[in-house]
Amino acid sequence: MKHELILLAGTKETEKALKNQLQSVFRDLISIKSFACDEGISSFFTKKLIVYSSSLIEEEVHDYIDHSSCTIIKARRTVNYEYIDRIFELPYGKKILYVNDFVKTAREAVSTLKRLGIDHVDYIPYSPGEEIAYDVDTAISPGETALIPDSIPVKIDIGVRLIDLNTITRIIHHFKLSEQVTYDITDRYTKKIIELSQRLGTINRKANTLNKFLNRVVDGVNDGILAFQEQGGEITVFNEVLEQMLGMSASSAKGKKLTRLFKNIELTHFLTSMEDEDQKYFTLRQKNVMVYRFRMKSEGVIVATFKDLEETIEMEKVRKRELQRSGHIAKYTFNSILGSSPVISETISIARKLARSELPVLIIGETGTGKELFSSAMHNESSRCTSPYLAVNCSALSEDLLESELFGYVEGAFTGALKGGKKGLFEQADGGTLFLDEIGDISMKLQTRLLRVLEEMEVRRIGGNKNIPIDVRIITATNKDLAKLIAEGTFREDLYHRLKILSLTLPSLRERAEDIPELIKYFLHSEQSRITQVDQELLSVLSQAKWTGNVRELKNTLLYMMTISEGDRLTTDLLPKNDHNFLKNDHTKNIKAFSLTQTEEYRNILSVLTGWYKEGKRASREKLSSDLKGTSTPLTIQQIRTRLSELQKLGYVVVYRGRKGTEITEAGSKWVKDKEECFK
Ligand SMILES: Nc1ncnc2c1ncn2[C@@H]1O[C@H](COP(=O)(O)OP(=O)(O)OP(=O)(O)O)[C@@H](O)[C@H]1O
């Protein structure tokens, strides 16, 4: 007759797991009936072998057993080998909460784990209701993860603890099973353990293969890579590039202590002390190397990468060539901007400062004053100089075309859309700068879209449903009065404030007429002209012209004169006929016809200058600005600069270079006197 065993467990889970275990060990030799206390026990047992899952249930099951006729075995439990790898995966030395329903069981289980040598982590026995005295983020539990406190984010089930070999042997003895059967059973138990070690072996082999693969990847990287344990300094990664950089073999370096291996004290100090900056420049075996260092806190590892600077510069050159090929490059630098008048020098100096910022810039200036030139120069002076620079003239494209140019589109967004869609300028300029010229001309719809891009730094292609993050600096330019457009309701005020966080006003050529000779000289030279002389009279006419088209107009005028000239000299005869710019006396007539405001402004400026002159002094722009504060025409320093330049052209003042100030001339004194008379 078949033997029968009664298994009594505390919970349903334990009952199920232990029954499975016993069945797989004893197969059809012993029939197993099992009961869980939490579900209630319906029978009274007589003349049976009763196995308790643990001595803790003794009291609960006492009344269901005829103690005089039954044999009782209190099972000893051990770790569940099915899940043991979950414990092995935990990092060395980590604090782990061991959770069970009773702290006594938890303590017992922890001591079993330690006895079995699974002691690489620091177990803290715990049962619900107790205080957790340590800062722990991981808990393990034998099938009772529901008992793990919510505050612990990582919960690991290590499976219900199984009945140990000693208890199995006691059951075998009880039923007096034959020796052969005993061998079979213990073999089966041992086989389970062998299966486990086979599984661990497979995991190990996989890990080794992955390790080899990662080593090959690390060796294939262009930079030197080093990793070492923060505690103790043992080197764990040392790739091939580093072998060449440091002149030592990886095999001899791995496993050694960093401080023993590296003779360069400064480098060792940099790698091991975490206080200073995380990158530093070194010369290693005659090579200039930049070392970057970072710490992998949870792994307790420090990683350093070594970058060969010459190679990096070479790569930058390749990248530049790539950008050049794609045309996404800024052509001009600050060296391309001509002129040495105070006003242009100061504008250049401000622009250089703005270049270093990441904020949007709005360039304001009349047509031909060099807005594109300044934008390009600012990109080249910025930290984005090796990334793309793209420019678009907003007034040159229709609204729809401009929209698809800027934002791109997805495939099928509209008829004629390219297969695979198209990247917009924002995406193409990623990492670099996008220059939007004539921004005052964009439609309200595009203004709204542009505002969103500036706010979110994301673009959505036309017809798309995905937001693409972008990293682009925006430079815009306009020759229109945006404040007026806002007042007229054609330009969004919020967009205006976003765009002009930094603004740059370019002077007109009229305001820096003293730069004209330098510009002429440069243009003649760049056109490889045979002209060697420019008449003084011509220079004087050119210096007094209005130049509404600014430098571009000057350039075009010179091209015209060069083309029609037959000699090596430029004279007034060569000036384009009927050009309102050069009509005789036109200039003087125009300037002298001052508006009332202008007259008042000039009168106040010249009166202040007269006061200073009487004291034998010249006035700086700052002094003028502060003296004018109380008058009917308070002016900013920038406005004063413009007015002084106009007054200088009229011969009413002399503006000295640098900080030397401005002096009123005799003609100026006379004019102001006349005006005072008129105003009386
Ligand atoms: N300071 C300068 N030095 C040298 N060249 C200049 C200078 N300013 C402008 N130019 C030249 O004048 C021409 C017009 O310049 P640019 O296109 O940058 O002007 P812009 O203000 O953007 O004009 P628009 O408003 O019409 O677009 C270009 O050929 C540029 O090289």
UniProtKB/TrEMBL annotation:
Pfam families named among the record's database cross-references: AAA_lid_14, Sigma54_activat
Query: Which InterPro entries does the entry link to?
Result: AAA+_ATPase, AAA_lid_NorR, P-loop_NTPase, PAS, PAS-like_dom_sf, Sigma_54_int, Sigma_54_int_dom_ATP-bd_1, Sigma_54_int_dom_ATP-bd_2
Q: Which residues form the Sigma-54 factor interaction domain?
A: 337-563
Keyword annotations for this protein?
Answer: ATP-binding, Nucleotide-binding
Q: Where is the PAS domain?
A: 210-258
The superkingdom listed in its UniProt entry is Bacteria
Record keyword ATP-binding present: yes
Phosphoprotein found in the keyword field: no
Spell out the protein name for this chain: Sigma 54-interacting transcriptional regulator
Organism the protein comes from:
Rossellomorea oryzaecorticis
